[in-house]
Design a protein that fits this description.
By secondary structure, the chain is α/β, with parallel strands linked by helices. The chain has 9 helices and 5 strands, in the order βββαααβαβααααα. Strands 3-2-1-4-5 form a 5-stranded mixed beta sheet, sandwiched between helices. α6 crosses α7.
Length: about 240
């Protein structure tokens, strides 16, 4: 059995903003699929403790008032998610996270904010089974033009995305995309999950360097962080 044919978990976050250092979790979806077992979908609505900008509400549909009235206390919600992720990591189940440095960095900062243990340890040192379909897609087809959003990659690789009205649709789509990439490309499925994780660390750094070189044609000071799957915290 290769990594793409066994059990996989997929994590997707909806947040208050785009800055991974300051964004708070509003919705977290964790889906376990594959391996000949029924799908297990877990969804959390959190009260982030700060106002939700209208731009974020347009994406995930949750207002500040809704989050305050219906959302779980953020410390308790993050603790629940952390426990589930820790179990997944301990069982070496592949963890699919589209744009992993964004989602996993946010989760890392939320754990620190609430003084909770970080699944995988500091800076993801114990995370050795992450699959980022965006990194994989860029590796296998570096120079393809066009958008590389989750929906765009699902369309390109003919993967079903169930849409915004279906709970956990983004997490499910990311898991399906990871399966499709593993099923389609022997150079990916031939690697064990730990080796694939380690290769993505290298590939993500190479991709960031290439993009930085492209940006510096117009902006000599442009910087693209290539850390993967979590951006380490800076110390002041």
């Amino acid at each position: 059995m290769t990594w793409h044919t066994g059990r996989m978990a997929a994590l997707h976050l909806h947040t208050t903003g785009l800055d991974a250092e300051t964004a708070r979790i509003v919705i977290a979806d964790l889906v376990l699929v594959g391996g000949g077992q029924d799908a297990d979908t877990r969804t959390w609505l959190l009260n982030p403790g700060i106002p939700i900008p209208s731009e974020a509400t347009k994406i995930h549909g949750i207002t500040t008032d809704q989050a305050r009235a219906q959302g779980t206390d953020p410390q308790e919600g993050v603790a629940q998610i952390s426990r589930d992720l820790s179990t997944i990591i301990s069982e070496q189940i592949p963890l699919v996270v589209f744009r992993a440095p964004y989602a996993l960095t946010i989760f890392d900062r939320e754990c620190h904010r609430h003084r909770l243990p970080v699944p995988g340890g500091a800076s993801g040192a114990g995370l050795r089974s992450v699959i980022d379909p965006l990194v994989l897609d860029k590796h296998i087809d570096q120079f393809r033009r066009g958008s590389r959003t989750l929906r765009a990659l699902c369309t390109h690789h003919r993967v079903r995305h169930d849409g915004n009205n279906n709970p956990a649709s983004d997490a499910l789509a990311a898991a399906r995309l990871a399966w499709r990439l593993g099923n389609t490309y022997p150079q990916l499925r031939s690697l064990d999950i730990t080796t694939l994780h380690d290769r993505q660390v290298i590939w993500a750094a190479e991709q960031a360097k290439s993009f930085q070189e492209h940006l510096r044609q117009k902006d000599p000071k442009a910087v693209v962080d290539g850390a993967w799957p979590i951006t380490p915290q800076t110390t002041s």
